[in-house]
Amino acid sequence: MSASVEEADLRTLACDARETVLRAVANARGGHLGGPLSAVDLLIALYFGVLRIRPEEPTWPERDRFVLSKGHSSVALYAVMALRGYFPLEEVMTFDAINSRLQGHPDMTALPGLDMSTGSLGLGFSAGVGIALGAQLKGSGFTTFVMLGDGECNEGTVWEGAHVAHRYRLDNLVAVVDQNGLQQFGWLDPSTGRRVPPYVGAELADRWRAFGWRVLEADGHDLRTLPAVLQDAREGSGAPTVVVARTVKGKGVSFMEGDYSWHSRVPTSDELARALGEIDVTRRTPERVP
Amino acid sequence: MRLPGPALRQVLGETLSELAGKDPKIVVLDGDVGSSTGGAAVETAHPERYLQTGIGEQNMVAMAAGLATVGFVPFITTFACFAVARALDSIRVLVAQPGLPVTIVGGYAGLLTGMTGKTHQIFNDVAIMRSLASMTVIAPADQIETRQVIERLAALDGPAYVQITREPSSAIFDEDYRFEVGRAVTVRHGHDLVLISTGVQTTRVVDAAELLAERGVSAAVLHCPTIKPIDETSLVEAALGAELVVTVEEQSVLGGLGGAVAEVLADKALVPVKRLGIQDCYGESGPNEALLEKYRLSAARVADDVEQLLSTIHSRNEPAIERSRLDDD
């Protein structure tokens, strides 16, 4: 079942998750950082405040389902699952190693607790639509949560699925968009030399609204408010719900924040030390609002 | 030569409706072509189990994978071209890699797609699907076999692809026939050569064997409904003692049944293997009989081509003469 954890503890857990993500990617000399770091607070809020799950019984039939459709953020999911008790935290250091259960992208055949294999963008969301439709058909009471990236919303299959979810009135389905404002490379803004966000301003929320979804907006790093928003999202209202969560790519490490090049860059040992130092400062500064 | 029976798509709809009536886990997904694929029968019989997903094949396949993870047994129904070519990544990542029990029904399979032409004809769906690890690939020949194939696939614990054709097709099996996944069956005995076929083409190949018999050639016909896993034992047994093996399929000669048979028999190096089927090309629209003639899949054209292959083999079997001629040059 969902753990009742104080907000201050959630913030500590988020710091632990970020530290684990950084160490695992540095150790593997591969993987992604920007997307996992933007997703950490959302994952912490879900796994410690919202999802009805039994880590000791990962295939509990009535559990809420969670699909990480932005599968390249797997290392953040592994860190949070480990902190939640699915497996030992040390195992996250096997991320991307040969024969590891913690594959570069989530593999449901390798690791209990993963409700879908993902990695090809957009497809996990559509699978989540199928899971939610299955729950509706069976009369099961669980909620299906799917996390997408905003870049991922480029994929046409997202909108195929959004249409069908609305058609079936799947109010047991919650999409959470980690809107970190950057994709792997994206479009160049010639006037600034920076990368253009996948969706600007209200474009993304408006698209979901146009597809008939109930749209909730949130600060994707504010652990004081996120659990309540995500709880609200699961309250069925005749339509599927999307939480468009504003986040920062690379959140928590100043020199990674907002820099698309950290999408899948591996830190040097010096960069890792600086990054872990920043995480440590955040951990020791409880009054610091994320 | 034969009286046409019900189209396999009709049998598909009837069988799925019956299965859905018996098993609440069966769901049928439709990509907006149920009135063509035969799936519409399920909507009539069990509307709650008929999941219309609209015109969006990638999403449909991914939804089926999600349904499978919560205990359903999904059958995806659309045209073979769209199921395979358009939704391949969904199939690869969400169905084949996790090994989920999803059956993909490729309707309008092969050459005869109701005058729609090359966009709606796919000749390498078997080649593509059999190259996916964990995928079972089946092409039934007639209504008796189709019914049993669908029943078996509903109980299969893994991904499957099955070709279902559009046009009325004749029965070659009787009610005593028992289909088994992975088993080929001899449908005609003969001692000069072995014809190996799959799907509805087997009926035309049996007819071709009759024509060959009239010309003094005794051809066995091995029907191979399961292209993956291929029945290696039956292939090797059939090839033993034959002077030629010819595969015939309503598919490209690249990578389909012919490829599968050639892979097995090449390892054993028993016998020459020739492949008949659609050459490395795209199709076109046209009346069925004209298409079968032009793409050399009618019984008469298959018989002609097999006879030609036999004569080539016979001339090659006189290598001493050939070499002496070359020496003179």
Please tell me about this protein's structure.
Chain A has helices spanning 7-28, 34-50, 74-84, 123-138, 156-167, 203-210, 226-234, 269-283, and strands at 65-68, 144-149, 173-179, 187-188, 195-196, 214-219, 241-246. Chain A has 290 residues and is of the alpha/beta class. Chain A has a single domain (7-283), classed as Rossmann fold, CATH 3.40.50.970. In chain A, the strands form two sheets. A five-stranded parallel beta sheet of chain A has the order 1-2-3-7-6, sandwiched between helices. Chain A starts with 6 loop residues before the first helix and ends in a 7-residue tail after the last helix. The mean pLDDT of chain A is 95. Chain B is 43% helix and 18% strand. Chain A binds chain B through residues 65, 107-109, 115-120, 122-135, 137-138, 140, 156-157, 160-161, 163-164, 167, and chain B through 27, 48-49, 51-54, 56, 58-59, 62-67, 69-72, 89-90, 92-94, 97-99.
Cross-sheet strand order for the largest sheet of chain B: 2-1-3-4-6-5-10
- Give the amount of beta strand of chain B, in percent: 15-25%
- At the first level of CATH, the class of chain A is Alpha Beta
Count of discrete domains of chain B: 2
Question: Which architecture name of chain A does CATH use?
Answer: 3-Layer(aba) Sandwich
Helical content of chain A stands at 25-40%
CATH architecture of the largest domain in chain B: 3-Layer(aba) Sandwich
The name CATH uses for the topology of the largest domain in chain B is: Rossmann fold
Oligomer: heterodimer
Low-confidence runs of chain A (pLDDT<50, min 5 residues)? none
What Rg of chain A do the Cα atoms give?
Answer: 18 Å
The string of secondary-structure elements of chain B, in order, is HEHHEHEHHEHEHEEEHEEHEHEHHH
CATH class type of the largest domain in chain B: Alpha Beta
How many beta-strand runs of chain B? 12
Computed structural class of chain A: alpha/beta
